[in-house]
Design brief:
6-stranded antiparallel sheet; 5-stranded antiparallel sheet; globular
Length: 940
């Protein structure tokens, strides 16, 4: 039961916000009660706000009822600043608006846009945003600004604090301040003169205290996100400039950011990097200030333990394993807009460090393989350690900064601390130019002894950073709950009192993200620790960072991969503990839909995951474990009777198509929806783009006698599904179109024996029926090996998902299999010149295309056929094989931004998966079909 004031809050909010977005379901609350930190609090209410008006309403009502509220975007925060046990207001979906200003010199962004997406918008202008955190693909603008996140290249000169142009915020009482709008500023002065007055008094009080003034200036010469950005009070006179900059790094404790305008920075055209290897960490640190004075873009320090954690990577150079124990590596980056400038910068860098010998000669490289590995090694260190840690332990990353001249001393002091407290897996790396070090290690929180060891580590670390080096306890990851007990220790009483006054000015009721940055509990960093029980070997390494979420089609509808793992861990914990059987039963019931049934199992989460966890495989395994004997027997029956099943499928589609023709779309849709409702959704959802049945392929060879031969495997889906009503009258079904295309390119087409009995196994594997899926994959492998005469001829798959499924399963690598995109590029387009290209087309890379790295080839292929190509930016379409028929809400959610991406005048879209194309057509009213149709059209 919710407390009475929360019931009142829900009642008030439901008047203006869709009640479906007022979340109180215990499973969902638990799922949202996590961020990338090692803390957990479970909110009592989650509100998904879709507009500034809704955010204002939440802030006003929580204030009126004295209920704490926390604002959140992606939740990639590392220090516990994005969690709460009260109201969590999530601003992600529907917060994607942006505008390019001053020809790209500025960009205005809403908080739900990821940093990498913002940079995509700026590509045409040769610009980017300044902050470049390692989490840029998942972290959103709201969090990047609220944490003053920096990164590899931005340092202290291009972070949010230095590059903010304007900000729009909602204060504790719902007042809106837009610093880009003079009318808004004047209205604010009239409504809140006390805030302006107090800000000016703070500014003047610091100015009058020369010791404090000097300390603030000195502390911010290196990276510092401990506490508030009180440098705003010494850097600016104008109270609005001060307010604007105080919001940066405030971690959502002062106001809600509804949009933010950045000054952009140049995105250099050319980039190169090198690994400078020094005999000792002291030598590397000695070179750092010299590099800082040279034209470098980034200098990353990696200690020997860091190198050891990546030395077994297939792309790692062999000498990594031979490096002496004392060595230290500096990853140095150069960026420039011309090759001549690159050469000049390299010469200047070599001259700058010529006095310090390296372990071996170094070479700057722009070679994609070497360049990408060097940065992968650096960016992957968190995952390298996280993936090796013991199950049940947490991967922690602490973040400190020191004056650069004392960086070597600090490195040795920290390494000694780790040795003394027996953190044997700890690695040390970081942004050397800023004296910013990251400390990554695994920590067990399951016993009081281990918690005490961590407490000792934090106490000793704070002594080293503050008392020995006067550095920063947090350099770019935010104070959160993690460092809140140490803020006064780092800053001293006078500066800490300034921070308390800042909190009082903007949050007089202490309701905005309470406990973060300002916290009187000296042990808060040791409380509310996140349990990480063993759940499944496929997901036990998950750090709950949320990097996976931008790739997940069900995120925002039900659960994301991170949230599925949170739920799996809690179910595992409840089972092991034997506690609260009613809660376990309810959670298992709700997880069936939220976690299992609405997971597309596309595996795109693994592409973004630091430790390569494929939550889709986990869900498939879960489905396998839960599969009934009836389901297993049915799968075996279907596998044994594929010809008959596909015949039934063709006949069924033709019957449905007949009634659609007779009744019309509207009446047919009404009848189909009624049947689905009456059968509790057991009847698949019909839509007007459902195809009729395909013709049966009866021959085993077509176009005989040609010099070139190809084995063509038409998927069981394309053998069953023919044309939809949106296809042109002259169009033929895909299997026939493929035949025509291959014949025109001069191929003899060989079909595998017993074609109608063959299947790649995807339909079974996705439902957890992996034994039958494996059996069908093996049958197909045997048939393709025979048809290709032991791999003599290439094998064409006409659907990317089928190709990917078989690619993952087959063992005989003599068989040369091809995705439809690659085959067209390599074998067909050289033989069929384009004669009449389209003006504009849209293409959609389905999830399997992304997983095999074929996106750019799809674009290349489409560009051969059209003057303009619009690549639809999305992850999985949500159709998930056949789930678009059984759980259509997943497809609808996945395609919610599809229509707006179709260029004006574009009437056709192209892809490489039949069922996905049905879903895309439904949600865009643009005819999506196989790219084979486009190729055939433009080459005729």
């Amino acid at each position: 039961m919710l407390p009475p004031n929360y019931e009142l809050l829900i009642g008030e909010l439901s008047k203006k916000i869709d009640p479906k977005r007022l979340i109180t379901n215990p499973l969902q609350l638990l799922a949202y009660g996590t961020d990338a930190s090692f803390y957990r609090l479970i909110p009592k209410l989650v509100v998904q706000v879709h507009s500034e008006e809704e955010a204002v309403e939440v802030i006003r009502q929580t204030g009126r009822l004295n209920i704490p509220v926390t604002y959140r975007a992606a939740g990639t925060s590392l220090s516990g600043q994005a969690i709460t046990d009260s109201v969590l207001m999530v601003a992600t979906h529907h917060w994607k608006k942006y505008s390019i200003l001053d020809d790209g010199l500025k960009i205005r962004l809403q908080p739900g846009i990821t940093g990498s997406r913002a940079n995509v918008f700026l590509v045409p202008y040769g610009r980017k945003i300044g902050p470049d955190p390692a989490s840029i693909n998942a972290a959103m603008i709201g969090g990047i600004a609220s944490n003053n996140a920096s990164g590899m290249c931005c340092g202290t000169s291009q972070n949010s604090y230095k590059t903010i142009a304007d900000i729009r915020i909602v204060l504790y009482d719902g007042t809106i301040l837009d610093t880009a709008d003079n009318d808004s500023k004047q209205a604010f002065v009239q409504k809140h003169p006390e805030i302006i007055r107090e800000i000016e008094k703070l500014r003047d009080d610091i100015k009058a205290d020369s010791v404090l003034d000097e300390r603030i200036r000195r502390k911010f010469k290196i990276k510092n996100t401990t506490g508030y950005s009180i440098n705003a009070l010494v850097d600016f006179e104008d109270p609005f400039e001060i307010i604007k900059h105080l919001m940066i790094g405030a971690e959502g404790t002062l106001a809600f950011i509804s949009d933010l305008t950045y000054h952009t920075v140049v995105d250099e055209k050319y980039k190169a990097c090198t690994l400078m290897i020094f005999d000792t960490i002291e030598k590397a640190c000695e070179a750092t200030p010299l590099l800082k004075e040279s034209p470098v873009s980034a200098v990353e320090l990696l200690d020997r333990d860091s190198i050891r954690s990546v030395e077994n990577d297939p792309d790692a150079p062999a000498y990594f394993k031979e490096l002496p124990e004392t060595t230290c590596v500096l990853l140095v980056e150069i960026q420039a807009n011309t090759k001549e400038e690159m050469d000049q910068k390299e010469a200047a860098i070599r001259k700058a460090v010529a006095s310090i010998p390296t372990y071996q000669p170094y070479v700057f490289t722009s070679d994609p393989k070497e360049y990408n590995f060097n940065w992968k090694a650096r960016k992957g260190l968190l995952s390298s350690v996280g993936g090796l840690r013991k199950t049940g332990t947490t991967c922690l990353i602490e973040d400190v900064a020191f004056p650069v001249p004392r960086l070597a001393e600090a490195c040795l002091a920290i390494k000694d601390l780790f040795k003394r407290l027996e953190y044997t897996d700890a690695v040390l790396f970081g942004h050397a130019l800023e004296g910013n070090l990251h400390l990554v290690f695994s920590q067990d929180f399951s016993t009081p002894v281990e918690v005490e060891r961590y407490a000792k580590l934090m106490d000793d670390l704070s002594d080293i950073v503050v008392n020995q080096f006067d550095g920063s306890l947090k350099a770019e990851h935010g104070t959160g709950r993690n460092m809140a007990p140490f803020v006064e220790k780092e800053w001293g009483e006078a500066a800490y009192k300034i921070m308390l006054r800042i909190k009082n000015i903007f949050d007089p009721k202490k309701l905005i993200n309470p406990g973060v940055i300002i916290n009187e509990n000296p042990k808060i960093h040791l409380e509310n620790l996140k349990p990480l029980p063993e759940a499944h070997e496929l997901v036990d390494k998950c750090m709950e960072c949320g990097f996976c979420e931008p790739n997940c089609v069900s995120e925002g509808l039900t659960l994301s991969p991170r949230q599925r793992i949170v739920i799996a861990r809690e179910i595992s914990r409840l089972r092991a503990a034997g506690e609260d059987p009613d809660r376990l039963k309810k959670m298992l019931h709700d997880a069936q839909y939220f976690s299992n049934e609405t997971c597309a199992t596309d595996g795109l989460c693994a592409l973004a995951c630091p430790v390569k966890i494929d939550t889709g495989k986990f869900i498939k395994d879960l489905r396998h474990r839960e599969a009934s004997e009836t389901a297993i027997d049915l799968a075996e029956y279907i596998g044994d009777h594929m010809p008959g099943i596909t015949n039934i499928g063709r006949s069924g589609l033709n019957i449905v198509g007949f009634f659609q023709t007779v009744l019309g779309d509207t009446l047919m849709g009404g009848i189909a929806d009624s049947m689905r409702f009456l059968t509790c959704n057991s009847v698949p959802k019909w839509n007007k783009y459902m195809p009729k049945g395909a013709r049966k392929i009866k021959h085993t060879i077509a176009n005989p006698g040609q010099e070139n031969k190809v084995v063509y495997f038409p998927s069981c889906i394309n053998r069953t599904m023919g044309k939809s009503k949106d296809y042109k009258k002259e169009d033929v079904e895909l299997t026939r179109k493929t035949e025509e295309l291959l014949q025109r390119a001069g191929f003899t087409i060989i079909y595998p024996e017993a074609l109608n009995a063959l299947c790649c196994g995807m339909a079974f594997i996705s439902k957890g029926l992996k034994e039958e899926g494996a059996r069908k994959s093996q049958e197909l492998e045997d048939a393709l090996y025979k048809a290709s005469e032991g791999g003599k001829y290439p094998v064409l798959f006409d659907m990317s998902p089928c190709f990917y499924t078989f690619h993952e399963a087959y063992t005989n690598k003599d068989i040369k299999i091809y995705d439809p995109i690659e085959f067209m590029l390599d074998f067909v387009m050289p033989k069929l010149p384009v004669k009449n290209p389209r003006e504009v087309v849209s293409v959609f890379p389905v999830c399997s295309v992304k997983k095999i790295g074929m996106e750019q080839n799809l674009y290349k292929l489409a560009k051969m056929c059209s003057h303009k190509v619009a690549m639809v930016e999305s992850n999985c379409c949500g159709f998930a094989g056949d789930r678009g028929f059984t759980y259509p809400e997943l497809n609808k959610h996945g395609q919610r931004h599809l229509a707006e991406q179709i260029p004006a005048g574009c009437k056709d879209g192209f892809s490489t998966s039949r069922t996905c194309e049905i879903g895309m057509t439904e949600h865009s009213d643009v005819n999506f079909k196989s790219i084979f149709y486009l190729i055939d059209e433009v080459t005729r």
